[in-house]
# Entry
Amino acid sequence: MSLDTPRIEARPERLTAHEARRRLEHERNARLTQLQAVGEARQGAEEMMSAQKETLERVLKEIEAAFTRVEDGSYGICLGCSKTIPVERLEILPYTRFCVPCRCTTA
# Structure
């Protein structure tokens, strides 16, 4: 192997509970900050703000449910097919309950 050859590290099949918690806490904090900003915003775009608030509250519920899955050991397992959700998907959407194929069929 040449010294000029880039080294490719294998990704773990699943996130550790610590990493999952860290990502979920980051997501929860971001959504809570957004929810606070929505609450403090002026009333001008009330309908749009209401929709944003509902979406943020739904995502917060999903994040809290993901914390429960971390605790019971089912985090990272697709609720549709029971296969492991790829780490790349969990890095993008750490509170997801479905792998991409199952998400497409449940949408």
